[in-house]
Amino acid sequence: MPDATDPGHMTNSRLPSGRPRRRRPLAISLVLAALLAVPTACTPAPPALEWETVAAPDDCRCADGSPFSFWERRADETRVVLFLNGGGVCWDARSCAFTSTDTPGESEFYDWNLSGTNPENRNGMFDTTRSDNPFAEYSFLYVSSCTGDAHLGSVSQAYSPELTVEHNGYVNGTAALDYLAEQYPDATEVVVVGKTAGSVAAPLYGGLVADLLPDAKVTVFGGQSGAWPDNPDFNTDVLDTAWGAYGAMPDWAVAGLAVRDWGVPGFWTQAGLHHPDLVLARFDYAYDPHAAVEITDWERGDSPSLEPVPGFDELAVIDANEAAIEAAGVPLHSYTAPGDDHGLHEFDAFYDTEVGGVRLTDWLAALVGDDPPDDVRCEQCAP
């Protein structure tokens, strides 16, 4: 919050006329301070975020074949956030079933349509009234996954005679990209923000944005997928066979890699090598138990448990993935927070998170500025 100053704080020095300077009573000073803190016509309060629904083309659809759309907040047209919401993932008849639990269109594994998705209830980075929100003045495109494929899929998949799933995430996501390029042709800065499963594809979408808007500075901030593995079976069975992602990608995204070698950590490497000017960054809680939902050791034909995996060391995998990306010659800025929290982007944690004296919001402001910050990593990382 902005620092408050006391306009009534005056010294006992003399005025130029020689008369003694008098101290205002404290009550009057507090009233004046309160009045100065109230926005006026000259200093309007920052506007709250308001969304408009954008209908996507007819070839865009959710997992159950229902229509797909995304949301827009139009503000500064030279600075745009492309937000890739999570929405969960699935890859077989059990995990992809169209069965709702508490919210329509959502199962315990993934969102299979958008009936339960409402960006109106978001806080955190979507609270554009806060002066410490580095994205308060940006335009936003909010793209939520409803296809169970982390914005990567491009196949109609029959998992059983009764269940056909439209893994159409890449078609949906690139339709939003086309809209961004058409509606914001003069954008000088685009920030691709990925949340949980949405952050899996974030570096690839960053590369695609740079293809479409070559004069814009493109920053990628992926949150909470740093521990996704590079597992040959997962790469083959899920990314390729179940989701059809490998064959849908542009050439640069798969260049030099066979299907079994095209894993999630490599998405960062491929994007960074294709566009060396991309600013790539990730955020992870060191021991987020929910991150283990999608990163169990992959066994052919098995769906993962929805419980934390005993003995799984998320931080070790996060560190190993980052080391592999940077060993390939791609800089990756990172912020690793301690503990086992999960929510970030639309929660107070977006503002409250501080590690080693560095607030996450300050780190992000530097990231999108001209001098990207040093890595931030917890010293005592255990919950």
UniProtKB/TrEMBL annotation:
One of its GO terms (molecular function) is hydrolase activity. Residues 1-21 are annotated as: Disordered. It comes from the Bacteria. The keyword Lipoprotein applies. The keyword Lipoprotein applies. Keywords: Lipoprotein. InterPro entries: PAE/NOTUM. PANTHER family: NOTUM-RELATED, PECTIN ACETYLESTERASE 4. This is Putative lipoprotein. It comes from Beutenbergia cavernae (strain ATCC BAA-8 / DSM 12333 / CCUG 43141 / JCM 11478 / NBRC 16432 / NCIMB 13614 / HKI 0122).
